[in-house]
Amino acid sequence: MLIGIAGMVGSGKSTLTRALAARFGLQHVLESVDDENPWLERFYAGGEEAMRANAMPLQLHFLATRFESMRRIRGAGGSWILDRTWYEDAEIFACGHFEEGLMSGLEWELYRRLYVELLHSPAARPPRLMVYLHAPLETIIARIHLRGRPKEKETADAYWAALHARYERWITGFRACPVLGLDVRDYDLVADPQGIELIAARVRRRLEPDLPQTDLFPASVLEAAAS
Predict the structure, then answer these.
(1) Is 157 a catalytic residue?
(2) Among 35, 83, 157, 192, which one carries the catalytic annotation?
(3) CB within 8 A of 13, min separation 6: which ones?
(4) What pTM was computed for the model?
């Protein structure tokens, strides 16, 4: 069984992934900053010209890395929870580069063809449930300024506004698997780790009887995992 966690930068995907994994006894994969990505620095190093030159290989690297990770997860077996999905890589970020003019029409068509083919692979079997974290744009931006990485804090609000709009458009048309929407204003797992219990109850109702029988962990186990 696979649970996907989706949502904007600043929505708390990694925090929720860790908390649900501890609560249900799931294996988990956090999104990698990907220090070994040779295209990331090139993409940001030289302004718009460098972005256009490197957008395609950057997105292909992300796609290949994501599917390599998913192949290993499927091979290992068991139940997993995933911080960000391959759907977002392609349908939000790569598509966004095309819409912004950083990828040409020919590049986007080639990328899209590869992505569609990969969707037919066993590794891309849809998650059992997609947990989608959402909030108004001003809430997301405030969280980024408070808790984000330095590069995220320096990013113009216009970028986040465009990304937020793409996320909302994407989830509206998403049909690959059931979706559980969570408004991030309704909880704060950093300030109140016990808030995971209400979220876990909602997830449990959507997944039973597929959750592993290790869903017997008391709150003390969750606290130990978070420390």
Answers:
(1) no
(2) 83
(3) 5, 6, 7, 31, 83, 84, 133
(4) 0.84
